[in-house]
Amino acid sequence: MTDIAATPSRTCGDCTLCCKLMGVPELKKPSARWCASCDQGKGCTVYEERPPSCRNFQCFWLMDEAFPEEFRPDRIHALAAFNDAPDSCVLHVDPAHPKATRSPEVQALTDALLKTYARVFFVSGKESAMLTR
Ligand code: SF4
Ligand code: SF4
Predict the structure, then answer these.
(1) Ligand 2: does its nearest atom lie under 6 Å from the Cβ of 62?
(2) For the segment 17-48, what is each residue's pLDDT rounded down to a tens digit?
(3) R_g of the chain, CA atoms, integer Å
């Protein structure tokens, strides 16, 4: 979705998963649906004009090199991101890959998030849950 403030050595590469999983209020784009402007696996076709929500978004994998390379969101069908509620974050899992919810990678990611945040809001399409330590 964006790499404007990414850590110098990490970029989105072929990943465009946030352009599906994240809602974009300015575009009235719901979560878990591909943005019409996304060239899947390549990038944003309106990059220079993309709205502030897209400009300001970075998933945790992009922000923090402590997350393993193989946990790039498009590879595990899930992304973690900041949440408005204090001491919490959001874990979005692609509803097109329901098995990803129980994958070792997503389980490991969930465990790592719960070491930092008291609550992890899990969202996958219409499914949601609040995970706690
Ligand atoms: S999910 Fe993360 S790595 Fe993938 S495109 Fe979005 S910001 Fe980049
Ligand atoms: S406008 Fe561009 S960056 Fe924003 S969701 Fe759509 S494709 Fe992704």
Answers:
(1) no
(2) 999 999 999 999 999 999 999 999 999 999 99
(3) 14
Every domain of the chain and the residues it spans = 18-132
Instruction: Output the CA 32–ligand 1 centroid distance in Å.
Output: 14
59-104 pLDDT, tens digit each = 999 999 999 999 999 999 999 999 989 999 999 999 999 999 999 9
For residue 120, the tally of other CB atoms under 10 A from its CB is: 23
Q: Considering every ligand atom, which ligand is closest to the CA of 33?
A: 2
Ligand 2 centroid – CA 81 distance (Å): 16
Strand ranges (DSSP E) for the chain?
38-39, 43-44, 78-82, 88-93, 119-124, 127-132
